[in-house]
Amino acid sequence: MLQNLSLLLRHQVRRQYAKTATKAKTIEREYNKPLISCKRTQFNLLQHERADAKFGTVPLCSKGWLHNKSKNDHFTLNPSISSEQRIAEMQSLSEYLATSQIQLHPQLLENLQQELGIKQLTSIQAQAIPLVDDSFHTLIAAETGCGKTLAYLLPILNKTLKEHCPEEDKLRLNTPRILILTPGRELATQIAQVAQKLCKDTQLNVTALLGGNTKQLMLNPHFAKVDILVATLGAVSKLVTTGIYHMDQVRHVVLDEADTLLDDSFTEKLTYFLRRFPFHKNHVQDAKIVGTQLLLASATMPTNTREILQRVIDVETIREVVSPHLHHLMPHVTQRFLRMAKADRPANLLSLVKRDLAKRRPLIVFSNKSATSDYVSIFLNNSGVNCLNLNGDMLMKIRIGRFEEFQRGDCDVLSTTDVGSRGLDTTRARHVVNFDFPLHISDYIHRCGRIGRVGSLDNSLVTNFISSRREIDVVQRIEHAARTGGLLPDVNANIKNIINKRIMADMKDAGVPVPQEEAF
């Protein structure tokens, strides 16, 4: 008996020792895992070796890329967290509803689970939903792919369903109660599709209002019962001005991809349009006075956000839900940077695309200009690769449906510009190729965000082709942020302002007088 007990204890001790040893090896392997892998191994960086220094003092692999002999050099930013860790950060939907004071409409809850297949909530969704539900003006600033659309859409639909009464069906036509503004047609279509799935078998009607045929709508307007209107800013502002749509019953205004809508190219039109909504009444303690709730969502925010919003709302009343990963490199996506001659990019692209298609990995190829996007599409199709093309210069009737073709799986390669980088839910994509490297870090963040999204936790990859001096300058800043673990610098989505500043600086350098009213 004692002998058997001794053997049992010895076996348990050995098992415990083996578990401890395995755990220690795992920790050691993670500890020695390279955060940055380089062709020149002297620039490798382990997970525990993050530097803490100013730009220009940290040795960079890309520092020598300005030299012609650096071609064919490369480095890789490896994931610092796994898919399992991301899943562990999520919260069960049923557990969240049981522990919170949120009471979802039964049909909305059923649609959420059955139509969208949502069983878990991300951290951002769990933080934002109660604030939006309590009618606070809310800014949701979080990394791409973390579910910001549902974070605002779920609570405002829930409130609208609960407050709905049959008499409201007699309201004027084209008089929405929820207005969602987006900068792009594809994003507006996508949000409308999500809203329609959530509103299935309810009395709420969803309408998408896209640009491109506004004159036709003004000449031959369509009138219907509209509860949720998802629209591009240009289209809705014209149709409201002409009296085809009425905004006096709107109780929730959402700026999706707010960074783009707050860009200088939109600001004047946006602030003029938003002044019609009584945002300030939301915080008057009188049940009879009804105001409009303002919601903003984006993965990057311009530095002058508060200054712009101050024109239409008291910014002190806005609650903020900000992710700790905001303006950081995506920690769960592998990112490769390849230094090459510009002439070598097509051949390298074709090689990558064929390799991905052999593995059935859908990919998106980004270019900086529509002409380059057209070239990539023509080049790949002529090389025997079926490739879709999507850019802002295409006619509306041609552009409609291109993104849905990629999402349905009709084609596994999409060539696009930044029109395809903002907010689109590309859960099919596994690989992003920057044929042209973006010249603004905010664009790089949005492009990378097309992969590694919630619902697409498989291993994902970003491949960057680096050729010009300006591209190398941006890469060096990204590499420095990766080595120090700090924020990405100059994440300012106000692209028009950035371009104007550069033009003014170039004029000064050339000795050309800068007009006083245009100086920055």
Automatic annotation (TrEMBL):
Gene3D superfamilies, per database record: P-loop containing nucleotide triphosphate hydrolases (3.40.50.300)
GO molecular function: ATP binding; hydrolase activity; nucleic acid binding; RNA helicase activity
Keyword Phosphoprotein attached: no
EC number annotated for this UniProt entry: 3.6.4.13
CDD domains to which the protein is assigned, alphabetical: DEADc_DDX28, SF2_C_DEAD
Residues of the DEAD-box RNA helicase Q domain: 97-126
Chain ranges of the Helicase ATP-binding domain: 99-412, 129-319
Keywords: ATP-binding, Helicase, Hydrolase, Nucleotide-binding
Domain Helicase C-terminal, first and last residues per copy: 352-499
Keyword Hydrolase recorded: yes
SMART domains: DEXDc, HELICc
Short sequence motif Q motif: positions: 97-126
Principal EC category: hydrolase
InterPro entries xrefs: DEAD/DEAH_box_helicase_dom (IPR011545), Helic_SF1/SF2_ATP-bd_DinG/Rad3 (IPR014013), Helicase_ATP-bd (IPR014001), Helicase_C-like (IPR001650), P-loop_NTPase (IPR027417), RNA_helicase_DEAD_Q_motif (IPR014014)
Pfam families reported in the protein's UniProt record: DEAD, Helicase_C
PROSITE patterns assigned to the protein according to its UniProt record, in alphabetical order: HELICASE_ATP_BIND_1, HELICASE_ATP_BIND_2, HELICASE_CTER, Q_MOTIF
Protein name stated in the entry: RNA helicase
